[in-house]
Amino acid sequence: MSTPRGTVTIDVEACKGCALCVPACPPQVLSMSPDRNRAGYHYPVLADGCTGCAACQLICPDFVFEVYRAARPAGVR
Ligand code: SF4
Ligand code: SF4
What is the distance in A from the centroid of ligand 2 to the CA of 46? Predict the structure, then answer.
């Protein structure tokens, strides 16, 4: 049995710090960094457990996320 897994890339310099992505993530693996990007905004960071559902990509007004899905669990090749 394989569990769908995914990951996202986060273009931190494109982020405007609205934090809409944090509650939008079903497994709650996004949180706002205490650090700021060059524009002065806090940006999200990813913890383990992303499913590749793309909810963050859909809700982000600034196209910060790219979503990648894997058929096999991360680390299995
Ligand atoms: S939704 Fe997009 S712009 Fe808003 S905090 Fe998340 S990554 Fe940044
Ligand atoms: S793709 Fe889904 S699970 Fe992964 S970070 Fe975005 S909202 Fe969360």
Answer: 9
CATH class of 5-70: alpha beta
Residue ranges per domain, the chain?
5-70
Point out the ligand nearest to the CA of residue 30: 2
Which pLDDT tens digit goes with each residue over 8-59? 999 999 999 999 999 999 999 999 999 999 999 999 999 999 999 999 999 9
25, with CB counted inside 10 A (0-12, 13-18, 19+), is buried
Spatial separation of the C-alpha atoms in residues 38 and 34, rounded to whole Å: 13
Decide whether any atom of ligand 2 lies within 6 Å of the 31 Cβ: no
Whether the per-residue pLDDT at 1 is higher than 80: the answer is no
Going from the Cα of 75 to the center of ligand 1, the distance in angstroms, rounded, reads: 28
